Amino acid sequence: MQPAGQYSRDRCITGVHGLDEILRGGIPYGSTVLASGTCGSGKTTLGMEFLVRGADAGEACAHFTATEPSVKLLENIRQFQFFDVKMVDSGLINVFDMDVLYSWLGLEKSSFDLDDVHSLIKAIVDIVNTIGVTRLVIDSVTTLCYKIKSEQLIRDFLFTLGKKLATLGCTTILIAEITSATENAHWSSFGVEEAIADGIIVLGDVERMGHLLRFLQVVKMRGTPHSRAKHAIELTPLGVMLTPMLKWGAVSDKQNRWGA
Amino acid sequence: MFELDQGISDQLTEVSLNSAVQVRCGNSNSFMVTASTMIPLLQMFEMSGVYISASRGAAEVIQGFEAIGVDVSHIQFIDLVSSGILGGTTVPYSNVHFVDSPIMLESVLLRTLYILKTTDHERNFIFLDSVNSLAIYNEDRMLAEYLHTFINTFRQQEVLTVILNVPDQTPPLVLSNLDLYCTDLIDRGQVVIH
Asked: Does some domain include residue A2?
């Protein structure tokens, strides 16, 4: 029971080992969360596990893939015990190739204008609405936004998409690629994604004596108190697992920068 | 003939699943002390567990146990040594997991938790071999912090933690913290040479 006057939002339980504890119960429903990370940091696995845990609970989930073909994505994810291809066959997890979507919409062009952006948002929202999707992953929003040349248009695209998905009760993870997860680094490629997101989860590597340790850090999550500490992660066959990173083992970010 | 230290199994009857036991040994008796600890856990208490091998490669540890007739099929080994040797990870055992380096302490903890998640055995132990080997690679404060987290994590999960240590090769800060966090001590650190 909560003390009088305290209000807490319903949560979308991610099911990722340790992440719900960090978020004090999960992601507030309907949030748009930016999962930004360097290459090989575990972004796609995290996104896929988020969907699988939802599908386990009978939720309809969707994954829009812009970085690799869906066939390759599913082939890579099959190595994990937590994933069962039956979830795709039964329609609980729906995987869409962005290239196919562009083709349907007649958007096979190098850059999108305002009308193109609106038709893309409408298509995604229609799919979410039709299937009744409650968990959505876009992998990656960086690849998608490369086609949108103006920062203002990127901001509008993400803000409108996030707002419409939230109205439908869909919790969304937007995966973003960054080149560095160290201090002074942006949490997104275009600098605008982080401003419109309700939450930011950063994934990267800490270098310790020549070895790379993966880490995850929740930088921001509206609507929930949460830990902002760095957590070490392992990608195990059962899924992503987290533990707090040793305080004396986290070298300073300046030492940690690539090429420094 | 290999002779076990009966006193160790007697002391182990006093500990509970949420205990953390520091087992002190010397250089010359480490295998005898290890075997005298492991054999009762496996045979008398019918436990399964995780053996974290930081002093020698897991294959060598397994062969040592097999040589004295100990069945290690109920143990999953986490080998922190062999990845540092080119080709060292090619071993004929399916119960060996590798972590790249003894400095990846968080990975060792997560790998151990992963193994525990996959076991359906109710009574489990973690055997850490050894603190002094980890001290070769890890800074004192970090290792002390790690042992604090490590011991508390498994005590909370009711997994018996057994930590092997050669005290005269362990930094004083780590040793004093280990004394503080562990609930029990089996001291075979003073080796008498006849």
From this structure: no
The pTM is what?
A: 0.90
What is the ipTM, given to two decimal places? 0.88
**Per-residue pLDDT of chain B in tens (194 residues, 90 and over written 9):** 578 999 999 999 999 999 999 999 998 899 999 999 999 999 999 999 999 999 999 999 999 999 999 999 999 999 999 998 878 899 999 999 999 999 999 999 999 999 999 999 999 999 999 999 999 999 999 999 999 999 999 999 999 999 999 999 999 999 999 999 999 999 998 655 55
Looking up residue A95, the CATH number of its domain turns out to be 3.40.50.300
Secondary structure of chain A in HEC code, one letter for each residue: CCCCCCCCCCEECCCCECHHHHCCCCEECCCEEEEEECCCCCHHHHHHHHHHHHHHCCCCEEEEECCCCHHHHHHHHCCCCCCCCHHHHCCCEEEEEHHHHHHHHCCCCCCECHHHHHHHHHHHHHHHHHHCCCEEEEECHHHHHCCECCHHHHHHHHHHHHHHHHHCCCEEEEEEECCCCCCCCCCCCCCCHHHHCCEEEEEEEEEECCEEEEEEEEEEECCCCCCCCEEEEEEECCEEEEEECCHHHCCCHHHHCCCC
Domain that holds residue A194: 11-256
B150 to chain A nearest CA, in Å?
A: 11
CA of A225 vs chain B CAs: smallest distance (Å): 23
Specify if A159 maps to a domain: yes
Spell out which residues of chain B touch residue A233, defining contact as CB-CB under 8 Å: 110
Instruction: Report yes or no on A3 lying in a domain.
Output: no
- Yes or no: domain B17-188 corresponds to CATH 3.30.420.10: no
- Domain extents for chain B? 17-188
If one counts the domains in chain A, the total is 1
Whether A29 maps to a domain, the answer reads yes
